[in-house]
Write a structure and sequence with these properties.
The protein is 22% helix and 45% strand. The protein contains 2 helices and 10 strands, in the order αββββββββββα.
Length: 168
């Protein structure tokens, strides 16, 4: 009797599995359910002391595709504004500049790091403490938005100093 029930339900289970597989393939090929075109590695938001109004986010962005992409914006519930920034050395002084875009060339890696390219979170709504997680939304030139759950960590002054004195 048990074998008869298994045999009887098998065609129904097989049909449901096939329908699920076809639906998944349709969603993936339509772009409604697809892996992000840019891979985000080692994301970090800098922990800051109470009273701080800004912090920064760092990460490595890898573009495995054969098309150049451009990071055109970002946002987060943690801050009023999130901007793309870069540190540049000008007349022996490190200066921060706002960018409208960060190029992500096909097949290449771009690092957002202290002393270089980074995301600046301005007008903090709460103070990010070590161990917290912050959601960042990265906006690409093709309309894609990549949601990144980003751990908050302390960024050492030694790490910052090494990067700030490095010419880019």
């Amino acid at each position: 009797m048990r074998d008869a029930r298994l045999t009887h339900s098998f065609p129904g289970q097989l049909a449901l599995s096939i329908i699920g597989l076809l639906l998944s393939a349709a969603l993936y090929s339509s772009g409604l359910w697809a892996a992000p075109s840019i891979e985000v590695q080692h994301p970090t938001v800098r922990a800051v002391p109470p009273g701080s109004e800004t912090t920064a986010a760092f990460m490595t962005l890898y573009n495995p595709t054969q098309e150049d992409r451009v990071l055109v914006g970002a946002d987060s519930d943690l801050s009023e504004v999130t901007e793309l920034h870069h540190h540049i050395m000008s007349e022996g002084v490190m200066r921060m500049r706002r960018l409208t875009r960060i190029e992500l060339p096909a097949g290449q890696t771009v690092k957002l790091e202290p002393g270089g390219l980074h995301l600046m979170l301005i007008g903090l709504k709460q103070i990010p403490a070590e161990g917290d997680t912050v959601q960042l939304n990265l906006q690409l030139d093709n309309g894609e938005v990549i949601e990144v759950l980003t751990p908050v960590k302390k960024v050492s002054t030694e790490m910052m100093s090494a990067h700030e004195h490095h010419a880019h």
